[in-house]
């Protein structure tokens, strides 16, 4: 139970209290529950979409996006902002990129990227809401958080002492492939919509991982957070474009 509570506490702003200081092994095992947390977040957004009912499309999209950000506490947006500043300001240099990523201040590049990401999400939500039932509200957060354990399982963690070090060192390698495979199969009950979302998410993951290996030789907590935001955008935009 503790690994699930760790995942909920780390990925959401739900009022979750741990029974005590978690062991490193429990932190690593929390990765098994990241896809489940994404699924729960998606279900919460679907419930809100149902409650909003006949609200105007623009307002409904804005409220859904605001709730989406609030439920995650902006955690991944913060990682995206730090990554954007570092990626541009690092000028291709690994050490300079990692150093800028540690700076808590946000520069103009971070602001521009955050605005663009939120704008794309809002526009995609408007388009999807106009098309009818919106499975994307479930699939986007679900798939994006399922990519996090995949990233830690396949990519070296390069910042010693970072928040993700315990995750990387103690992740359950034998169980993770089975858990991720089960979630992928469960998602396919949505048919071609889920297949399109899965392809978009995995394509984004492959490109992002390649960029991380070329620039940093691996991942950090900030770049993992950026992956979540970018994957959500990829899924929403892909489904909106394909109707």
TrEMBL record:
InterPro entries: CobS (IPR003805). Pathway: Cofactor biosynthesis; adenosylcobalamin biosynthesis; adenosylcobalamin from cob(II)yrinate a,c-diamide: step 7/7. GO terms for biological process: cobalamin biosynthetic process. The chain crosses the membrane at residues 31-51, 58-77, 109-129, 136-158, 178-205. It is found in: Cell membrane. GO terms for molecular function: adenosylcobinamide-GDP ribazoletransferase activity; cobalamin 5'-phosphate synthase activity. Coiled coil: none annotated. Its cofactor is Mg(2+). Keywords: Cell membrane, Cobalamin biosynthesis, Magnesium, Membrane, Transferase, Transmembrane, Transmembrane helix. Its EC number is 2.7.8.26. GO terms for cellular component: plasma membrane. Pfam families: CobS (PF02654). It is a multi-pass membrane protein. The keyword Transport does not apply. The keyword Calcium does not apply. It is an enzyme of class 2 (transferase). It catalyses: alpha-ribazole 5'-phosphate + adenosylcob(III)inamide-GDP = adenosylcob(III)alamin 5'-phosphate + GMP + H(+); alpha-ribazole + adenosylcob(III)inamide-GDP = adenosylcob(III)alamin + GMP + H(+). Joins adenosylcobinamide-GDP and alpha-ribazole to generate adenosylcobalamin (Ado-cobalamin). Also synthesizes adenosylcobalamin 5'-phosphate from adenosylcobinamide-GDP and alpha-ribazole 5'-phosphate. Belongs to the CobS family. This is Adenosylcobinamide-GDP ribazoletransferase.
């Amino acid at each position: 139970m503790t690994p699930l509570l760790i995942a909920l506490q780390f990925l959401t702003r739900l009022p979750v209290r741990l029974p005590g200081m978690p062991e490193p092994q429990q932190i690593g095992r929390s990765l098994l529950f990241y896809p489940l947390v994404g699924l729960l977040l998606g279900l919460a957004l679907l419930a809100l979409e149902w409650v909003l009912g006949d609200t105007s499309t623009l307002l409904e999209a804005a409220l859904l996006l605001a709730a989406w950000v609030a439920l995650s506490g902006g955690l991944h947006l913060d990682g995206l902002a730090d990554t954007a500043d570092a990626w541009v300001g690092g000028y291709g240099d690994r050490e300079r990129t990692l150093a800028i990523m540690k700076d808590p201040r946000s520069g103009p590049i971070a602001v521009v990227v955050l605005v663009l990401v939120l704008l794309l999400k809002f526009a995609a939500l408007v388009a999807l809401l106009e098309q009818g039932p919106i499975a994307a509200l479930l699939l986007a957060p679900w798939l994006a958080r399922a990519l996090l354990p995949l990233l830690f399982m396949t990519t070296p963690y390069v910042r010693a002492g970072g928040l993700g070090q315990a995750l990387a060192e103690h992740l359950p390698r034998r169980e993770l492939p089975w858990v991720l495979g089960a979630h992928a199969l469960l998602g396919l009950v949505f048919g071609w919509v889920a297949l399109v979302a899965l392809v978009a998410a995995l394509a984004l993951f492959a490109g992002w991982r390649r960029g991380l290996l070329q620039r940093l030789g691996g991942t950090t907590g900030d770049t993992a957070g950026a992956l979540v935001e970018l994957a959500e955008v990829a899924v929403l935009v892909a489904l909106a474009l394909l109707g």
